[in-house]
Design a protein that fits this description.
heterodimer; A: 110 residues; mainly beta; B: 115 residues; four-stranded antiparallel sheet
């Protein structure tokens, strides 16, 4: 079965610093999604990547999918306390089937 | 705004006492999903409905059941909750074939505690 592994598991950065979160799949990805989850709440959709080499940006967050479609990275530029939360990558693994990584907990120190 | 609403946000039940979690949607989506997310773990798909067709994941315990009386509502029933069932339960919806900017829309979840 396909698995998603995220690294690092947790991250503490000073406000204003850049950071990168990685998501690696055990199989080729056909749709890779990034979500943010605030503690004790639901998932907020950030971005969707489908093509090898694709890159998308929204405000200060940029996500990339590598050419082989097995790894994705999420980069936050000039982090702010509002970026704090749990970042999850998710993927299509079949008809109406999705899996998720275990998440990266981000804390931004003001 | 169209959305996915889960009630209650927090639920406490006793060991072995049946409990029902509720999810409603105003998106008119065909597919509704239930996920279980334990602390520091990935959300795990329990089952989904495509309209009235129920699809159970192979490793979902028999203790977990679901009902979808209409397009808008979906319920998660836990017949005899054990301590290991304490978790966040997330409901999500999707609309196959539609041009949407996101694959699934999630509710805010229900955090279930077992005494």
């Amino acid at each position: 079965s396909q698995e998603l592994e995220q690294s690092p598991q947790s991250l503490i950065v000073q406000e204003g610093k850049n950071l990168t979160i990685n998501c690696t799949s055990s199989k080729t990805l056909y749709g890779l999604y990034w979500y943010k989850q605030k503690y004790g709440e639901g998932l907020i959709f950030l971005m969707m990547l489908q093509k090898g080499g694709e890159e998308k940006s929204h405000e200060k967050i940029t996500a990339k999918l590598d050419e082989k479609k097995q790894q994705s990275s999420l980069h936050i530029t000039a982090s702010q306390p509002s970026h704090a939360g749990i970042y999850l990558c998710g993927a299509d693994v079949g008809t109406y089937k999705y899996i998720f990584g275990t998440g990266t907990r981000l804390k931004v120190l003001a | 705004d169209a959305m996915v609403i889960q009630n209650p946000r927090y639920q406490v039940t006793q060991f072995g006492k049946p409990v029902t979690l509720s999810c409603s949607q105003t998106l008119n989506h065909n597919v509704m999903y239930w996920y279980q997310q334990k602390s520091s773990q990935a959300p795990k798909l329990l089952f989904h409905y495509y309209d009235k067709d129920f699809n159970n994941e192979a490793d979902t315990p028999d203790n977990f059941q679901s009902r979808r009386p209409n397009t808008s509502f979906c319920f998660l029933d836990i017949r005899s909750p054990g301590l290991g069932d304490a978790a966040m339960y997330l409901c999500a919806t999707s609309s196959p074939g539609s041009i949407e900017d996101q694959p699934q829309h999630f509710g805010d979840g229900t955090r279930l505690s077992i005494l």
